[in-house]
């Protein structure tokens, strides 16, 4: 089809939402640092292609684009996030097609 990009590739979008322990302030500063370190590790490994926070008071707090072989693999990667483990965040993962993001690089 002439109106469909030829370089579509399968990805997963993760919507990070406020979790059931969102308002729990115990260890919040340490957990935030652990979450950011985890995100950097996943981005440097190219499991997560890029991620960023939502900047208003939406229940969705962040968005991540994941490259994984399957939905199960994407869920397994996200489940290791310290903020998910602490129930400060919860995740919704959706399969999507985007034009290839192979050239996208995050710089630290």
UniProtKB/TrEMBL annotation:
InterPro entries: Dimeric_a/b-barrel, YCII. Coiled coil: none annotated. Pfam families: YCII. Residues 26-86 form the YCII-related domain. It comes from the Bacteria. Belongs to the YciI family. This is YCII-related domain-containing protein. It comes from Acidipila rosea. The lineage of its organism: Bacteria, Pseudomonadati, Acidobacteriota, Terriglobia, Terriglobales.
